[in-house]
Design brief:
Blueprint lengths: L2 E2 L4 E3 L8 E2 L13 E4 L10 E6 L5 E3 L4 E3 L4 E6 L1 H9 L7 E4 L13 H12 L5 E5 L4 E4 L2 E4 L6 E5 L2 E4 L12 E4 L4 E4 L3 E3 L22 E15 L3 E8 L3 E17 L1 E9 L15 E14 L3 E6 L6 E13 L10 E5 L1 E10 L3
Parallel strand pairs: 3-18, 4-15, 7-26, 9-10, 10-13, 11-14, 12-15, 13-16, 14-17, 18-20, 19-21, 20-22, 21-23, 22-24, 23-25, 24-26
Antiparallel strand pairs: 1-4, 2-17, 2-18, 5-8, 6-7
């Protein structure tokens, strides 16, 4: 379950708390995507406030594909404002320990630095007063797949100033992921550095900014996530929410904003019918993880495919309260008249504000 950025390139200012907030933009190269946050067991605590958005479209429906542009009442997007403010304003947790990967033996000389990153994470995660784990600037660190597991004892900030680059050896990828964050709460990722997933080499690893929810008929609960100021270049997926058929639970109160996509195959996608066809056939199931209260704001760039927006939502549990504001994605193909970016939308209740292109 989770969020995966990776083997292509991700431009980082992520801030997860489950706020994935990016304070300065990071820049990625190409690849598919292995930076994975397991949000299924995460929790965020604090006093929520409510931001109100007004639905601008009224009474438009398309029963054939399940599209419903909703009436002119108020649309709520709720997030944990208190924690967001605290994490944004504080450079590090009070009394925090600063941990550099170099202190644990990272060389940034082309050799494998995975062990040093893992040990630095474990040290930071075990700190009782909060910690800042630092990837120094002007260096390139090569990593094999690494799991960064929690729970941690206190809030943690990962500052990526330099470059993290995926191993090019396909045999290193026993599972389709690279950087995997599991069972972590109150994590903030920032710094303006580069996460390079080497996607053209490691074709088995895919990007997924929230995914694998409800796998094997499990329950998953993800809420209060912000992805802000990221750049994705050459990735298979951009801002993605992926759930399996047969699961239960929810993914709600999620905000993707101020994001640039360059030559991304699926720039904006919700898929509630995910199935790993390589392992087995997937018969249609009734239950699904409910996706609701999702905001896409100020997302621009180019699509490598003809479908720039894809909302493939469940018939029994349609996507609800999906809000798009100032979205502009065009085709990256040279012949833009023949390759026009389109939207594919089914079983979704959504609303627009500002310019949205392509529209459902």
């Amino acid at each position: 379950m989770g969020m995966l950025l990776g083997t292509h390139c991700l431009s980082l200012p992520l801030f997860i708390i489950l706020f994935i907030s990016l304070s300065r933009p990071c820049f990625c190269s190409y690849g598919e995507g292995p930076f994975h946050f397991d949000l299924g067991r995460a929790r965020v605590h604090g006093r929520p406030t409510t931001t109100m958005y007004r639905r601008l479209y009224s009474g438009i429906s398309n029963k054939r594909n399940g599209l419903d542009l909703m009436s002119e009442n108020m649309f709520e997007f709720k997030y944990e404002d208190e924690i967001r403010s605290r994490l944004n304003n504080a450079p590090a947790p009070t009394g925090s320990t600063v941990v550099s990967v170099d202190d644990f033996g990272a060389k940034a000389n082309g050799s494998d630095d995975s062990k040093a990153f893992k040990e630095a994470w474990e040290f930071a995660c075990n700190s009782s007063q909060g910690a800042v784990m630092v990837v120094p600037r002007n260096k390139i660190y090569h990593l094999k797949p690494v799991d960064f597991s929690g729970p941690c004892n206190s809030p943690l900030i990962l500052k990526v100033f330099g470059t993290i680059k995926a191993t090019v050896h396909r045999s290193d990828y026993r599972r389709p992921r690279w950087l995997y964050f599991d069972n972590v709460q109150n994590l903030r990722v920032e710094g303006g550095g580069i996460i390079n997933g080497n996607g053209r080499t490691c074709l088995a690893v895919k990007h997924q900014l929230i995914g694998s929810l409800g796998a094997e008929n499990s329950s998953a609960y993800v809420s209060n996530v912000i992805v802000n100021r990221a750049t994705l270049s050459g990735t298979t997926n951009g801002v993605r929410i992926k759930t399996w058929q047969g699961g239960s639970g929810y993914a709600k109160n999620i905000k993707f904003q101020n994001i640039m996509v360059h030559n991304v195959s699926n720039p904006i996608i919700i898929d509630q019918y995910y199935c790993d066809h390589h392992k087995s056939t997937c018969p249609k199931q009734v239950s699904a993880v409910q996706v609701s209260n999702v905001v896409y704001k100020n997302i621009r760039g180019t699509s490598a495919s003809n479908v720039a927006l894809k909302f493939n939502c469940s018939q029994m549990y349609p996507c609800r309260e999906i809000f798009l504001q100032n979205v502009a994605i065009t085709s990256s193909q040279e012949d833009k008249e023949e390759h026009i970016a389109e939207a594919s939308c089914s079983n979704i209740r959504l609303s627009y504000r500002g310019n949205v292109s392509p529209p459902c």
